[in-house]
Amino acid sequence: MRVRFWGVRGSTPTPQKENMEYGGNTSCIEIRTDTNQILVFDGGTGIRLLGNELQQEFGDRSIRAHIFFSHFHLDHIQGVPFFRPLYYPQNHFTFYFAGRRDAHLVMDALAGMMANPYFPMNMSKLPCSREYVDLVEETFTVADTRILVLPLNHPQGCVGYRIMQDSKVISYCTDVEHGVDWSDKNVVTLAKNADFFIVDSQYTPEELPGHVGWGHSSWKQAVESGIEAGVKQIALFHHDPYHEDGDVEKILNDAQKLHPNVIAAREGLEVTV
Ligand SMILES: [Zn+2]
Ligand SMILES: [Zn+2]
Questions:
Q1: What's the pLDDT tens digit per position in 154-163?
Q2: Mean of the per-residue pLDDT values of the chain
Q3: Closest ligand relative to 174 C-alpha
Q4: Which residues lie near ion ligand 2 (Cβ < 5 Å)?
Q5: Measured CA distances, 78 to 13, 38, 171, 184, 231 (Å)
Q6: Ligand 1 centroid from CA 253, angstroms
Q7: Which ligand is the nearest neighbour of the Cα of 215?
Q8: Distance 89 CA to ligand 2 centre (A)
């Protein structure tokens, strides 16, 4: 499988020159399976760039992609209206969310964001074809992969994903606050022996006490959960909007002292698993 990071910033886009090394777009990652199927995790502002890339790649050919949401906080959905492949009738998208047992939830969340008075184009008028899938919290098969989905501790809820193809495992656990037993266990289950662990690392340990209840982790908690799960490589993700490149660099240096194979996710980075 191949992972591409299209948006790595947490909470809000930060398009400013001090952040250009790691990037200012919010959460969006793409996974290409070994059979070249397209899985997308979250629709933050990074998904706009993914849309451009897909249109270059496919031209007039039909684009089919599976788009999974961790949750519906704005930084994880706000790029969707600007994902241009939605505006072409030959394209087909399946949108997934888990855990609420309400098939309308995904559709309502996306449509709500595009409704009057927030956006000029109503979602129901989009020319592409679409499906909405409500996942239960278990393992399911999609696009030649097995995917486990479990809830994580975060205000208004969030889910993490474990994506498995053949013997390879990618784990995507963003927007999670540690210190709640069931959720901490779910992080470890989702990441168990993963080849690549993408994880919420928003704060420094010093910043954490001032952000209890905000739903995020320190880089240290992120790395410790990776160590507990025995992962091979860790990607620090969901960088705080107040952390400039130098801050992320320092976090990365500190994190690398705890685990030999840590990277900081940055826009445009491609990792083959
Ligand atoms: Zn977020
Ligand atoms: Zn969130």
A1: 999 999 999 9
A2: 96
A3: 1
A4: 73, 175
A5: 10, 20, 23, 28, 31
A6: 23
A7: 2
A8: 31
Percent of the chain with pLDDT over 70: 98
- Distance from residue 207's CA to the centre of ligand 1 (Å): 17
* CA–CA distance, 245 with 267 (Å, rounded to integer): 12
Q: In angstroms, what is the span from residue 89 Cα to ligand 1's centroid?
A: 30
- Find the ligand nearest to 12 CA: 1
Query: Which-ligand-closest: CA of 10?
Result: 1
Query: Which numbered ligand comes closest to the C-alpha of 154?
Result: 2
Residue 233 has pLDDT above 80, yes or no: yes
Distance 107 CA to ligand 2 centre (A): 18
pLDDT at 13 over 80: yes
